[in-house]
Design goal:
Number of helices: 5
Largest sheet: 9 strands, mixed, barrel
Strand order of the largest sheet: 1-2-3-4-5-6-7-8-9
Oligomer: single chain
Shape: globular
Order of helices and strands: HEHHHEEEEEEEEH
Radius of gyration: 23 Å
Strand content: 15-25%
Length: about 260
């Protein structure tokens, strides 16, 4: 009797199990926030818990950073030999050369994994990213427009996004060479080109991936990935942070003593 029941119910059980498995991504997809046009809505205040800003590559503890496994796929950034020597010089002099220590804008993609929150304001035609640190506002255009035909060299580059399903794919180009990728001296030239991929893991978690290439600095494109978490604390908001860590006397020399 039991064997007969098993023969009849096993196929049905398998069908039900398969349907439940197939429905799970759809159910998860329905739970993420969306705009009126159905596209995922990344609006909110986000922050990483990674130590990527200290160094994108794996590193042990040092006086100015805790140890970390890094966020670079494969572990190592593929520098050209001459560029690697420049990176080493940057590292040795990071306390004075790091653009963030001068109060400059963090740039792309560093503002995403800097250890401070940033806010996204999203509309159908664009997303505006506002980091807590610095004065910058980055706009990602999602209106189908392309990069300008007469580009400038911008601090944040020029960001043009499109949707691949529920993933926002952003092409970023037209940079200057004045920002770093982290505080360990990893750098780029004005030939930097980035392709970002933003997607929800759930309504409060974003998976951020970026492919980075620079024909003047890196021998091939390379990838990074970080997880971003939504701030859900009551009344949480960004707080202006325009720190300058250079010697105060460089800007305001002391007045000579008078007798």
């Amino acid at each position: 009797m039991n064997s007969t029941l098993n023969r009849h119910w096993s196929p049905l059980y398998l069908v039900v199990a398969m349907l439940m498995t197939l429905s799970q991504p759809a159910l998860a997809s329905e739970k993420i926030p969306r705009l009126a046009n159905g596209k995922p809505d990344f609006s909110g205040i986000w922050q990483t818990t990674s130590a990527a800003n200290d160094d994108l590559e794996p590193h042990s503890n040092r006086k100015d950073a805790p140890p970390s496994a890094g966020i670079v796929e494969g572990g190592t950034i593929p520098y050209f030999p001459e560029a690697l020597e420049q990176k080493k010089r940057n590292f040795e002099n990071r306390e004075t050369l790091d653009p963030a220590r001068k109060g400059w804008t963090l740039g792309v993609p560093r503002a995403v994994y800097y250890p401070a929150p940033f806010q996204i304001f999203q509309r159908q035609a664009d997303l505006n990213l506002v980091p807590q640190f610095g004065h910058s506002v980055r706009t990602i255009h999602t209106n189908g427009s392309g990069h300008p035909t007469d580009p400038n060299d911008w601090w944040l580059g020029d960001s043009r996004g499109h949707w691949e399903g529920d993933t926002l794919v952003v092409d970023v180009a037209d940079f200057n060479d004045k920002t770093w990728l982290d505080s360990a001296g990893n750098f780029h030239s004005d030939a930097l080109h980035i392709v970002e991929r933003w997607r929800f893991l759930d309504k409060n978690t974003i998976d951020y991936q970026a492919t980075i290439e620079d024909k003047n600095v890196f021998s091939r494109p390379w990838n990074i990935e970080v997880i971003l978490y939504r701030h859900r604390e009551k009344n949480f908001q960004l707080i202006e942070d325009y720190r300058f860590t250079l010697d105060y006397d460089q800007f305001y020399p002391p007045k000579p003593e008078t007798k």
